[in-house]
Amino acid sequence: MKPIALSILLVGMPAGQDVGVWLSKPLLDPRQPLVEAQVYTGSRVPPLPVFRSQAEWEKYSAPLRTRILNEVVFRGEAAKWRDAKTKLEYLEEGAANGYRLRRLRYEAIPGLWIPALIYEPEKLTGKVPVVLNVNGHEKTGISTPYIQERCINLARKGMIAVNLEWLGRGQLDTPGFSHYRMQQIDLTGTSGLAVFYLAMQRGLDIAAAHANADPTRIAVTGLSGGGWQTILLSALDTRVALSSPLAGYSSYVTRSQWPDLDLGDSEQTPSELAGIADYTHLSAMVAPRVLQLGFNAKDNCCFRADYAIAPLVQASESVYRLYHAMDKLRYSINYGEGHNYNRENREAFYRLLRDHFFQGKLDATEQSAVTDVRTAEQLKIELPEDNLDFHTIALRLSKTQPSDKKPTAAKLAYRARTKRYTVESFPAGEDSANGISVRYWKLEMDQAWTVPVVEMSPAQPKSTVVLIADGGRKGAAGQARKLLDAGQRVVAVDPFYVGESSMGKRDFLFAFLIASLGERPLGVQASQLMAIARWLQGERKVGPVSLHAVGPRTSLAALVAAALEEKAVSSVTMEESFQSLQEILQQDLTADKTPELFCFGLLEVFDIPQLKALITPPRKVVISASP
Fold first, then answer.
1. Where are the alpha helices (H) located in 303-446, listed in sequence order?
2. What is d(CA 320, CA 298) in angstroms, rounded to the nearest whole number?
3. Are 287 and 316 in contact (CB under 8 A)?
4. Measured between alpha carbons, how far is 135 from 164 in angstroms, rounded to an integer?
5. DSSP per residue over 412-477, as a string?
6. At what angle do helices 54-68 and 225-236 cross, to 10 degrees?
7. Measured between alpha carbons, how far is 196 from 231 in angstroms, rounded to an integer?
8. Shortest CA distance to 496 belongs to which of 445, 540, 541, 456?
9. Is 146 helix (H, G, I), strand (E, B) or coil?
10. DSSP assignments along 44-85, one per residue
11. E-strand spans in 96-201?
12. pLDDT band for position 258 (50/70/90)?
């Protein structure tokens, strides 16, 4: 039914104001974009199959490990990094209170140095367990007091403790190592995740190569991002005999249902991983080695015990039972405050080591090491001034890109992972004023996404323009009015992640999960635009249409859509557009602010000129530079 009250309000209203009112009208339930994203992502994560025997599981898990390494971690230039010769330099060492401390630095990839510490027993003889301590988002990195206390206690108890600085923390806490810059490397077609993985794997190499390391008793532990590193390394590198991640991850399905807490950063949700394996798979892949899943009941950050732990335990148990190794699977719940690796958590880890590395003969009580804690300055390890980071790596990789000499529409469709959505339209009201008739629509695409649409038409429109803008349709009233004044029918839309289709707080994490499922946020946007153009040409019989984008982000989506939809899109106009995708790197943009721009490998094959070249005459492309 026509909303009479609003129509009366618009009569006689100045022409510039009515457009703004129309474009600002809410068409979706406020929670609809979020719920749709939750259902879409959660329902597409592959479940762990049911296995009847060890042989059946191993036939499945061994190729899965290889797939993750080859198809997620070591992609592009990272395949060369994997076998590259890297440097390791030991620095000074000294005796302390019941232990010895050694400083060192090593290259994760050539040119990227990582600081590290090794804590050793004061009297070290024979082969002993070695524990790789990987840190999380603690700003102070390897100098964080509780991490020092844990490493000191491990050394006093007769073990070797290796502590690695994490990318973006401690001495590596620089803008270029911001985790949301990881996707800058992805844009070039090389996996940014590989930098994370090689940093910890080279650390494991150092730990395993220690003259006194027992290769059968290698453990890994860490909190938060350190918990994530622990499970990824333990699942993919079978040298790890004992794994104790703490509050570091949950199932992707769980994450989609608890987005304010659990979706995870760039490295936890890399392109392709969620489409191949969930964290339930990674947990089960530790079997039959020792695994303790640790979580905090009062966690105020993420991965809270009450909802995160059960799916992981359930999946892991199904595999551990095949090996009759349930004694090697534990879970530990801590009731201390917040996101912590407190004394109770540390002693739970010592007990795990006691039971599986020392046949029960180890004092699992923590000795006070507060007076042994050193400052960051005391632990500082000199690094090269030109040490690489995510940003400088991406700039290096992009220097010769795009490198593909024959970019085609098929290659673009693959890189952007576009789909041919079906559309079902639902009228959502009408308005009119100043000779303009307005129809509101909700377009349901593949029964998954709902796109809000405002169709504004003069009495006898010359043609039809689909209008999108980085700031959403309500911020494009000026452009809409100009197009209407020129006699155009204007169809203003908010595709995935834009305007009314935004998912709210931390919505970029859903964009990451879309990419991790093997799709691309850019591809979702472009696919929706193509579907709208076909709907207008078919059901509405007003096509082919022009695309008009305002802003560099929606301009890229419009350009991809125009390049791939030859019949329904006649031209594309882009205001404030990039002239080159290199600008994404030159402007040092980050994936938390502009996730759709970091389409894996797009720059390897296409820049703006190559995309334009796919739109052949008589179709037109008009691009204006960003201000």
1. 305-320, 343-357, 376-379, 390-398, 409-416
2. 28
3. yes
4. 7
5. HHHHHT-----EEEEEEEEEEETTEEEEEEEEEETTTEEEEEEEEE-SS-SEEEEEEETT-GGG-H
6. 120
7. 13
8. 445
9. helix
10. HSPPPPP-SSHHHHHHHHHHHHHHHIIIIIS-TTHHHHHT--
11. 99-109, 112-121, 128-134, 160-164
12. confident
What is the Cα–Cα distance from 46 to 276, expressed in whole angstroms?
7
76 phi and psi angles, rounded to 5 deg? 65, -135
pLDDT per position as a tens digit, 291-341: 999 999 999 999 999 999 999 999 999 999 999 999 999 999 999 999 999
Residue 620: both structure tokens together = 């037109």
Residue range 511-517: average pLDDT? Answer: 97
Average pLDDT, integer, range 439-451: 97
User: Per residue in 16-59, pLDDT tens?
Assistant: 679 999 999 999 999 999 999 999 999 999 999 999 999 999 99
443: pLDDT strictly greater than 90: yes
pTM summary value: 0.95
Hey, how many other C-beta atoms are within 10 angstroms of the C-beta on 417? 21
pLDDT of residue 400: 96
Q: In the predicted model, is pLDDT for residue 491 greater than 70?
A: yes
Residue 264 pLDDT grade (very low, low, confident, very high; cuts 50, 70, 90): confident
E-assigned strands of 110-211?
A: 112-121, 128-134, 160-164
Strand order in the sheet with 329-337: 88-95, 99-109, 112-121, 160-164, 128-134, 213-223, 242-246, 290-298, 329-337
What's the rounded mean pLDDT across residues 104-131?
97
Answer positive or negative: Cα dihedral of 62, 69, 37, 425: negative
Give the pair of three-digit tokens for residue 216. Answer: 């059968």
For residues 624 and 576, give the distance between their C-alpha atoms in angstroms, rounded to a whole number.
6
User: 436-445 and 449-457 as β-strands: parallel, antiparallel, unpaired?
Assistant: antiparallel
**Pair of tokens at residue 110:** 């050539």
Structure tokens at 422: 């079906």
Token pair 């020092």 in the structure block, residue:
148
Query: Is the CB of residue 362 less than 8 Å from the CB of residue 353?
Result: yes
